[in-house]
Amino acid sequence: MATETDISSSNTQIPVDSKKRRLWLIIKISVALLIIAALLTPIIIRLTRNKNTTTETMINTTVSFTTTTVPTDITPLTTKENNPTTISKTTTSSVSLTTTSSTTKPIMLQTFRRTNEVVYAIWNTSAGSNSSPSSPGQSTGTYWPTEPPEAALDGDLSTEYSNHGICIGSSPVQDVCGIETGFYITFKSEPFILVKFRIATNRNSEPRDPNTITIEGSNNTESDLVFGKSWSLVYDGDTGLATDPGRQAYGDTQTILNNSLSFRSYRILITSKRGEQVCVSYSEFEMIGRFPD
């Protein structure tokens, strides 16, 4: 028996069920998307952190070379099963390169050559004391008239400077003759830093060779150079003639250590000589140095 259907009621119910199904579908999709997003977020964060860490590591890595040797069969090593063992060798080396460059200005030394500077002969004078002028003659406190102090600075080994000191030109012959004699000079150029010097022997008498000397410097005016307080000691020691180089020949070059002081005037005094004679005599006193920077 056929049952009558309420068509109007059925038509009203269908749209309501369809809306519910759509709503549930949207809810399910949204929940699924939220779950997927929740699962993917830590992975993205982890990948981002790993990427940043890798970048930082690469930046901080110094020059490093890694050499990997392809596995090579070395002489077989016998194991319990008598099987050859293959050895793989990996070598890691790190190279650090440091380059340092410096420029050193070369020091140019010059030899002083006298032009028309006045050379003052002195005697009876020691380092730090007042200068006593010496004049030409053959008595006490004189130098040979034909062998003046200028001869020690003319660059000519055939000339020489001879001073008697407390002795006279003939006798007696003593080892003190010519001691505490010398000269001083003022440069016409700018102050000069004395770095080295050498002395040349006289023409015919070994006992007259100077053995030890003092060198002093001053920047005072020329009129004040007679006073001992005007001078500063630069050198006190050997002349470089301990071994006789022969006649009219230079001895060993002497170096003045750690001297950076420049002076306009220099005073040279003989403090001992090789032997007994009526005077001290030398053909050249060569001054080697430089001008201040």
How would you describe this structure to a colleague?
The protein is an alpha+beta fold and 293 residues long. It has two domains: 18-50 and 64-94, no CATH class; 110-290, Jelly Rolls, CATH 2.60.120.260. It is 18% helix and 27% strand. It is built from one helix and 15 strands; from the N terminus they run H-E-E-E-E-E-E-E-E-E-E-E-E-E-E-E. It has one helix at residues 7-60, and strands at 64-68, 90-94, 110-111, 119-123, 132-133, 135-136, 142-143, 161-163, 182-186, 193-201, 210-218, 232-238, 254-255, 265-273, 280-290. The protein is rod-shaped and about 150 Å long. It starts with 6 loop residues before the first helix and ends with a strand. InterPro entries: Galactose-bd-like_sf. Residues 127-142 have a biased composition (Low complexity). Keywords: Membrane, Transmembrane, Transmembrane helix.
Indicate the mean pLDDT: 81
The major beta sheet can be summarized as: 6 strands, antiparallel
Q: Quickly give the CATH architecture of the largest domain.
A: Sandwich
Low-confidence stretches: 1-14, 47-89
Report Rg. 50 Å
Give the domain tally. Answer: 2
Features:
Jelly Rolls, 2 domains, five-stranded antiparallel β-sheet, rod-shaped, 1 helix, alpha+beta
How would you summarize what this structure contains?
By secondary structure, this protein is α+β, with helices and mostly antiparallel strands.
Describe the protein's topology:
Layout: H1 7-60, E1 64-68, E2 90-94, E3 110-111, E4 119-123, E5 132-133, E6 135-136, E7 142-143, E8 161-163, E9 182-186, E10 193-201, E11 210-218, E12 232-238, E13 254-255, E14 265-273, E15 280-290
Parallel strand pairs: 6-7
Antiparallel strand pairs: 1-2, 3-15, 4-5, 4-9, 8-15, 9-14, 10-13, 10-15, 11-12, 11-14
